[in-house]
Amino acid sequence: MQTSSFVTTLFSTTHIVVLLSASCLLLCLYALKNALGLAPRRVKLRGPSGFPLVGNLFQMRAGHARSLAEWTKVYGGMFRYGLGEREAVIINTYADMNKTLIQQGAAFQSRPEFKLWHGAFSKALDPDAPATMGTSKFSEQINKYRRLLTAQTSAAKLPSFNHFLARRYVRLVGLLDQSASTGVAQDLGFHFWTTTVGISAEMLFGQRFDEEIIRLIADVNIQAFRQRTLATPIHDYIPLVAIGEQLAIACASPIRTILRHLRLSKWLDSIHEAEKHAKQLRDAEVGYCKKFLEDLHERLDAGDSTPSQLGDLLRTIDDGTLTPNEELCLATTLVTSGMSTGTGLTWLVSYLAAHPEMQEKAFRAIQKVYGAEVPDPLDTDRVEYVKALGLEAGRYFATVRLGFPRETYDDAVVDGVLVPKGVLVVYNSYQINRDPQRYDLPEEFVPERWMDGHYGRTDVKQPKIGVPHLNHGAGRRVCMGVPNVNKVVYGNLVLLLHFFKLERAPLNSAAREAVFPRLRAVGEASLEMHPIDDQVSVCDSQAVPLAAGVKLTVRDPNALSRWLAEGYRELDQWNCPNPTTTPGNLRK
């Protein structure tokens, strides 16, 4: 009896030890799996094979547009791929975009979060600080923001801000005139980014900003957008790397010594620098937006009635409807809205400088509408060819290469395949804008595809249904500022092409030093302005072009001088009340 009792006890104890050991092993394996960041396989779509731990991460880092284009040829309009711990679905055709973002918009309306952007950048100063509206997960709060802003960003509302556009356009022509007077090629990025960002900031806050402030806003936002890129940094996708970084920070000296022997200390330093830079950018952005909001509230309290997007919004809502953080979220969202427009114009103008036939066609089209008069840049879309140039630039250059990534808010079924809630979804703007089913001659820059009843194709006339291209998104999170983008692109182009001829030429040393922002000075773009080869980085989500020398020649110097001296006063709403601006200091 005693032996039997002993055996039973031993057997039970052994079972308990085995069960505990197995449980610990499973927990360790589960923790290791999470630390390694192995992407789940919930989406039953084909896709490229990846590598253990990293999936397709490094294949993406070799260049978004080309990598995805090659995979599209093999796997079609939608496929699955892995980015470390994240399972992702890529959308590559216009038809598949319709099946997802449009037809099932509610399921595809959320956004993913990334450690660098939403952590080091957005939360750098305050753990409760808001991300921008466009990069936040879907919530009723996001719906609230969009409802409030709808009236302020509509095409019908835009004319009330014309006086801000008018002043920026005259400043632009003055800058272009100065560049022409040098007789040498200049990079025109500064001219267009500070014009488009200046318009956005002044419309938003209802005041005119000086050159130093607008340069700062433009520079910060061009750099900040680079924090949103996909597949980098690696610690956004592989938790084990993030854990290692935290250990390295906690035990800096001994671990740095080990890494130095392994020749990996530069890697750790680069991570620290990236996060430090992100925090500096956020500090600058929050700093000036808070100051502008304080100034706006002071003016509103004093009875100022200058039209502005935030000012008009605050006048129409009850006190307390928006918290200070919500106001800051709207401010940091909309103050960036002109940046992508400036990027597109910089690509397009550098391209047109190598195509005099397009310049002359535009000039003749402007003359046909306006005769000998200076075109009104606020009278949007009267010259069809100028409008077509802007639309084709959005399609061809696709400056927002992978759109703003989505995350499924609910389960969705696409062609019988389940895409579960919480999956990262990337619509490949660059590839969709070259979908041969949607566009003929997709690799060619053809403005005529948007003229005379054509809508995307030159070989057939068709109704204007759907978005013309994916540069501003589609569906429930489409960019709310599209009417303003189209208006600003048209205004810039019609004045540029009326007053000046453009010619590509190399930059001299002084002109290279003046390139804005400085990150573009790493090289000079080809005459072709190739959308991939001539960008600063093949992995940036915003395709910023390399520097490009453009030599300007004034078509009619006397006419230009007269317009800069007095003719600008003919612009609509030039004398609209605006206590912070007077015509006398316009060209300073």
From TrEMBL:
GO terms for molecular function: heme binding; iron ion binding; monooxygenase activity; oxidoreductase activity, acting on paired donors, with incorporation or reduction of molecular oxygen. PANTHER family: CYTOCHROME P450 (PTHR46300:SF5), P450, PUTATIVE (EUROFUNG)-RELATED-RELATED (PTHR46300). This is Cytochrome P450 phenylacetate. Keywords: Heme, Iron, Membrane, Metal-binding, Monooxygenase, Oxidoreductase, Transmembrane, Transmembrane helix. The keyword Hydrolase does not apply. The keyword Transmembrane helix applies. The lineage of its organism: Eukaryota, Fungi, Dikarya, Basidiomycota, Agaricomycotina. Its cofactor is heme. Belongs to the cytochrome P450 family. The chain crosses the membrane at residues 6-32. Pathway: Secondary metabolite biosynthesis. InterPro entries: Cyt_P450 (IPR001128), Cyt_P450_E_grp-I (IPR002401), Cyt_P450_sf (IPR036396), Cytochrome_P450_fung (IPR050364). Heme binds at C479.
